[in-house]
User: Fold this.
Amino acid sequence: MSNTVLPPLSKLLFPAYLTFRKGIKISDVDIKIDQEFSNVSIDLANLAAYKKYFNFESELPATYIYVVAQRALLHLMLNKEFTIAVPGIVHISNEVQLTPQFNITQKFEIKASIHVPVKEGSLFPTAEIIFYQKGKEVARNISNYIAKRKSAKKSSKREQEVSTFDLARFSEEWVIEKSVGKSYAQLSNDKNPIHTSKLFAKLVGFKRPIAHGWYSVSRVVSVAEKENNCTFKSVQVAFNKPIYLPSKVQFELNGGNQFRVINAEKSYTYLAGYLS
Assistant:
């Protein structure tokens, strides 16, 4: 297991795009990569900007954990042993957990791992990013992905959508402007051009730029916290369809803190999950 300094996300994106030439390869042995990062700290100015952007009131929103974890995730995928092109990977679900013990002014360590099981057809990488302060776990992120690949046999499709949803007790319509792609990219340092460039979006199979998935989740949690008058420490979400920019979507929250963002006209779900 390597121990290294965690670079900023902006320095990882261009190398990630260069992996496009790799395609999707796996031998007869699972891909397993572990890395450790020391002396990591919260960028307090960026955290303040993030809270202002989404109108969060808590000291450390649980969703901000993924903003930091994403750097470790991409670093894992740039390891030479990860033989899958990063641009061909689709995020299908995400989970963040935050404990009250996380001190935003204290440095922390990260233990990161990614595992890709050997199988025919599409591959399903799973990454786990764990945050430690003074030897104790204070936050965790688990991300699941799919790298689509043809197979002689029909591969089973993973069902990510929440199967049932009670009558919404709160709902509101969101207009997600085209400018969101650029503004959230600046905020999160996730400057993947599929969110801002029609050309790059088409190169990876989208008809136009798409909203960052975590933009939508962050907005969900901020609105849900105000509606519930509480702070959530755990978020589980499944991503089902991309939200193209611009778009008009419907956010819904039920009594069990289950949420979804849907296309009300075409009756399909963009993303859905649970808060606690």
Summary: The mean pLDDT is 91. The longest helix spans residues 213-228.
